[in-house]
Write a structure and sequence with these properties.
The protein is globular. It is of the alpha+beta class. Strand 4 and strand 5 form a beta hairpin. The protein has two helices and 13 strands.
């Protein structure tokens, strides 16, 4: 998005104000992107926190293709996170209700971002950027993908680790197409390291 404005003072363009506005707009947009960057070490910290098997209390935030149960219904989810490729890839497999998923986390050295690519058996896909916010908190933002019926994903939130790494909470707000989903608040308990 490029926005240009030339303000007129005494009948002539004020290039100083225009330049200041453009530089300020550019700086603000760079700061927003910088907040979503991570180091390779932060990616590995996230992977070490998440590695293992988890059981989750999941509440559907929307009516999803492939699921018999609708929005507001609860299911038990099972997820396993495991390292691959010398700790350069974190692979995830999971199942919640009737749909299973396969995800891949990796650190992108060109953008300095942790990226998640998720595909599910109902035909959905999600692309997500994840970054470290504090010792046990990671932010996330959906950057692409959608559900099998063509509705695009959008949203953001946090991953929180607590109880000495024995609890993982994924929370946030998202939308599917033009419909806002219910708030996300899934709580997972570690089953094994």
């Amino acid at each position: 998005l490029v926005f240009t404005a030339i303000l007129k003072t005494n009948g002539r363009p004020d290039l100083f104000l225009c330049s200041t506005f453009i530089v300020t707009l550019f700086a603000c947009s760079c700061l927003a992107l910088a907040d979503e960057t991570s180091t390779r070490e932060e990616f590995r910290e996230l992977g070490d926190l998440a590695s293992g098997r988890w059981i989750g209390d999941i509440k559907f935030i929307a009516d999803w293709p492939g699921q018999e149960l609708g929005q507001g219904k609860r299911v038990i989810g099972y997820t396993e996170y495991s390292w691959a490729a010398d700790k350069n890839v974190l692979q995830i497999t999971g199942i919640a209700g009737l749909v299973s998923n396969v995800d891949t986390f990796a650190w992108d050295p060109t953008t300095k971002q942790v990226k998640l690519f998720s595909v599910d058996t109902a035909g959905g896909l999600a692309e997500i950027v994840i970054w470290k916010k504090s010792k046990n908190e990671y932010g996330w933002r959906i950057t692409g993908g959608g559900v099998a019926d063509g509705r695009a994903h959008a949203g953001r939130g946090q991953w929180l680790f607590s109880d000495d790494g024995k609890t993982m909470t994924i929370q946030g707000q998202s939308s599917s197409g033009d419909k806002k989903n219910a708030p996300l608040h899934d709580v997972y308990r570690r089953r094994s390291p």
